[in-house]
Hints:
Radius of gyration: 19 Å
Shape: globular
Strand order of the largest sheet: 2-1-3-5-6-4
Amino acid sequence: MTAQPQQDVCCLMGMPVAGNPTHYMLEKAFAAARVDWRFLTFEVSPRDFEGALRGVRIFGFRGILLAPPHRATVMPYLEEVSKAARLSGQINCIAQVGGRLHGTNTEGIALRQLIKPVLSIADARVTLVGAGRLARSIAAELALAGAGELVFACRQPDRLGPLIAELLEQTPLSACHAQSLEEPFEVPENCQLLINATPVGRHHPEEPLPVSLAQLSPETVVADVVYNPPGTWLMREAAQRDCPTVDGLTLYIEQTALAFETWTAADADRTVMREAVEEFLVL
Length: 283
């Protein structure tokens, strides 16, 4: 039994949230760390989101994970926001400390940490497939970490103008541009990190990305954000070329583990978390 007057609680807010494994995974992580915390999941509409955040403050929730559509709309309600989150306009993790809400994005941080053993981000040449919330979150983090060049391969490259300008002005990034996926897109021969930040492959692992991997080097690190299933077309193609890989399931677990550690200051057991997700998703 806890000696505290109120149990520590964290939650997930999104719409929809059905089928999301985060709740099950974090409850297992709390138990493994022997911390008497609880995790809740709430389906919150955009209309009710501001009121839900007031409830978070009133009831003293220690942490909040945000799922779409709230990641791009929460910033005005927070007292503090990390630089990467501000640049990308995307926040997926909030910690409440002393009644103040601190927002950050663990997605880009997780990827940076996972590739660190095999690739230095400093001056790295990165190709991002996609231009949505995940691509923006990852791009901001990698640019701040010292990436040398970012290439976005996406359907509507013209929409990225403001983001590219901010990245070049506010980070060490020296080169950044967007190319269209409407034409056959070839991964640049000098690419050191290739990331799929689109939903291509979700629930359909045979679905290929609209890119050519002909020039992909065995030294190129390849990552995919799709976690269900983790064995996407891109991951299989990269493995056949002996490229180091980071699959979407590992990335998802890492970003959630970082949130856990931010809230609790305890170490997250990533093995327990993986087992929980695999059980939940029947992988």
